[in-house]
Amino acid sequence: MKILTCKELGGECDARLSAETWKEIVGKMVDHVVTHHSETAKEMEKMHNEDPEKWGKEHKPLWEAAPEMQ
User: Fold this and answer.
1) Integer Cα distance of 4 and 16 in angstroms
2) What distance in Å separates the CA atoms of residue 69 and residue 21, rounded to the nearest whole number?
3) Is 43 a domain residue?
């Protein structure tokens, strides 16, 4: 399991999101942003519509570098 914060993933707060896989953390981040940060959700949606791979290219290296937690 790895843990990253909303802020590390491009959001606004220090909420800690944990997941076993990259795909899982992406889903949790989307759910978190939509629920808690509507303006950021709109910005992320716009970014995704312009370049669907941009967010992943910027943030997946953080996921890969994050240590495994017990």
Assistant:
1) 6
2) 13
3) yes
